Amino acid sequence: MFRNALFASLLCTATAAHAHYGMIIPSENMVTGNEGREIALTLSFSHPFEEAGMEMAPPARFTVTHDGATTDLTGTLTPATVMGADGFTTRYTLPRPGSHVFALEPVPYWEPAEDAFILHYTKTYVSAFGDDEGWDAELGLKTEIVPLSKPFALWAGNVFQGIVKRDGAALPYAEVEVEHYNTEGRAAPDELMITQTIKADANGVFTYAAPFAGWWGFAALTEADYTLPMDGQDKGVELGAVIWVHFEDVK
Amino acid sequence: MKVIAMIAALLAATPALAHGLNVFASVEGEQIVIEARFANGRAALGAKVQVFDGNDILLVTATTSGEETRVPLVGQDTGVRIVVDAGDGHSDYWIMTPADLVAQ
């Protein structure tokens, strides 16, 4: 009995870690304005389904883009513990109606288990004051998911569609990992259900229907066309185009 | 605390339901600049604008005629509730606190 338990414990220890995600989670993603115009934003590098954080270094850049103008918010970030690890928070007062795109460029994260660096360009969209103008804004990041469905105002069960882009061009048949930010503590029926993987079509377009409400992260992963040094050796860099989308409950 | 009570009073006097219209207002110079747009982004033309103070007293009326409608800066003591009614149930409001109503 004890031996079986020990064996099971060892197997669990050896289980591969689930997907890493850059995360930007706003306190609200559709702000009406008359009940307050300030939102809180939480930035982290985490395993969202398991709510397990990883140490996040101060980001290279954190910005908000509205109506084509980008404002640097990096200096507003405050260190915080997020899912048990180092992350950041900030507050932002939405100045005008329309979509506000928050984007995070972290510094490369060294992942010894993968013998590679991870660099996730992460973004999320917040609609202000009933105006959705700019919901399909493309920021021109190194790699990016450009929404084809509004990245807010989605019911649970709706599909979310996006185009995976790398250096501004659509990426045919890109792999997209999908994971729920599991704040409800749901149990997955199988490990395969924690991170689901889908592929884009020949035009780089992917489609996913969220089965229940909450935050869902979509990460399109590619290998960088450059390496970074670690202990005197050149190491590969995983680039992630990550977008966080909230689906709403039918009440 | 006073500001919270004032916002609560402004909200309490709010029309029942906003529908298909979005109102936003800001201060420029000595004026309140009011923007009223339908969900498709088009400006609401000929809509009735009413500006109430925190005691629900009507201070200013106007009619929209373009992208922006300007009215004098009023209600700095109590805050204002700006109601725009474009008819057919298309109405919305925007609340400005005393802190919002500072001449720029």
UniProtKB/TrEMBL annotation, chain A:
InterPro entries: DUF4198. Residues 1-19 form the signal peptide. Keywords: Signal. The keyword Signal applies. It comes from the Bacteria. This is Cobalt/nickel transport protein. The lineage of its organism: Bacteria, Pseudomonadati, Pseudomonadota, Alphaproteobacteria, Rhodobacterales.
From TrEMBL, chain B:
Residues 1-18 form the signal peptide. The keyword Signal applies. The keyword Signal applies. Keywords: Signal. It comes from the Bacteria. This is Nickel transport protein.
